[in-house]
């Protein structure tokens, strides 16, 4: 005769919550909802804070100094780099704050945004990143089309409307018989093709006098035998041995007085919205 089955104890998978604990389910559910709401509001608060325009911006190089001073409200800028003092520009006054480039001063300034070019302050900016500071690296434009996106990126970073960026002009090619322009720099260096400056020259409607690629050591005899229509002396305005080539009598005799052009040297140093002014100025000289 089979024995009656005894009542088997319930295993963990069949465990039923006792009444007192089951009564707390409603309370626990409500608590989780409240906790989730708090976390959500906290996240929204962080996003809102992150979306606010930075109020303590620091620049680490000259090109960042210039475009930041061009667009930012002065109250937003905690410090420009020391390079803007070594290479002063007439439209940046002396009352802009600056730093000495040290990590210690960076920490003292407590910036909420640090701007750097792609090749500048490599060690400093990485150290600042490891310390938790927000560092934005802007690649310098290598084409005219990239100048617009470069400016838009800067405007967005500092909390301004990126649509304020000046649009890049429609690409233009010079006429086959257009006048030839030699862009002459210090130490008898001319700027040839495959350069950012070459794009500026052609966009303005000139042909580049140099057909070589890159930056070229100029030959005085070559220029005297086949002179360009104009020379733009793009070098700092001071007496120096590096500028003596432009003063050579042979060169001066080869180019008429009205064929010597001059622009603000700083406009050639860093791309920016002033690049479009430079193109317009070069174009006007063709008339």
Helix/strand/pairing category: alpha/beta
Bin the helical content. 25-40%
* Average of pLDDT: 83
Question: Which word captures the global form?
Answer: elongated
Uncertain residue segments: 1-24, 35-50
Rg value: 32 Å
CATH fold-type name of the largest domain:
Rossmann fold
Order of strands in the sheet with most strands:
2-1-3-4
Topology order in helix (H) and strand (E) letters: HHEHEHHEHEHEEHEEHEHEHH
Q: What's the CATH architecture name of the largest domain?
A: 3-Layer(aba) Sandwich
The count of strands amounts to: 10
Query: How large is the count of helical segments?
Result: 12
- Note the beta-strand portion: 5-15%
Q: Whole-Å distance between the termini?
A: 122 Å
Oligomeric grouping of the chains = single chain
Question: Could you name the CATH class of the largest domain?
Answer: Alpha Beta
Task: Give me the CATH superfamily of the largest domain.
Answer: Nitrogenase molybdenum iron protein domain
Count of distinct structural domains: 2
What does this structure look like?
Helices cover 38% and strands 12% of the residues. The protein is α/β, with parallel strands linked by helices and 287 residues long. It has 2 domains: 57-164, Nitrogenase molybdenum iron protein domain (Rossmann fold), CATH 3.40.50; 180-284, Nitrogenase molybdenum iron protein domain (Rossmann fold). The chain is elongated, with a radius of gyration of 32 Å.
């Amino acid at each position: 005769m089979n024995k009656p089955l005894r009542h088997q104890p319930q295993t963990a998978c069949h465990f039923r919550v006792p009444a007192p604990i089951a009564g707390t389910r409603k309370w626990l559910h409500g608590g989780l909802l409240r906790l989730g709401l708090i976390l959500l509001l906290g996240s929204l608060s962080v996003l809102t804070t992150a979306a606010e325009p930075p109020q303590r911006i620091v620049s680490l190089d000259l090109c960042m100094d210039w475009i930041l001073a061009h667009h930012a409200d002065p109250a937003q800028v905690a410090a420009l780099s020391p390079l803007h003092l070594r290479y002063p520009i007439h439209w940046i006054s002396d009352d802009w704050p600056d730093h000495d480039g040290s990590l210690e001063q960076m920490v003292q300034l407590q910036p909420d945004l640090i701007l750097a070019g792609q090749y500048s302050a490599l060690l400093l900016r990485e150290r600042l990143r490891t310390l938790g500071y927000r560092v934005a690296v802007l690649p310098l434009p290598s084409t005219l089309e990239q100048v617009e996106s470069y400016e838009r990126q800067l405007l967005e970073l500092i909390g301004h409307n990126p649509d304020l960026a000046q649009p890049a002009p429609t690409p233009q090619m010079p006429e086959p018989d257009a006048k030839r322009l030699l862009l002459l720099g210090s130490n008898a260096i001319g700027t040839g093709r495959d350069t950012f400056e070459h794009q500026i020259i052609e966009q303005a409607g000139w042909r580049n006098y140099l057909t070589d690629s890159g930056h070229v050591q100029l030959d005085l005899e070559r220029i005297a035998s086949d002179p360009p229509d104009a020379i733009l002396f793009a070098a700092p305005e001071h007496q120096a041995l590096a500028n003596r080539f432009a003063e050579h009598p042979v060169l001066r005799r080869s180019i008429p007085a009205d064929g010597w052009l001059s622009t603000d040297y700083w406009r050639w140093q860093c791309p920016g919205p002033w690049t479009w002014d430079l193109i317009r100025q070069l174009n006007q000289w063709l008339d």
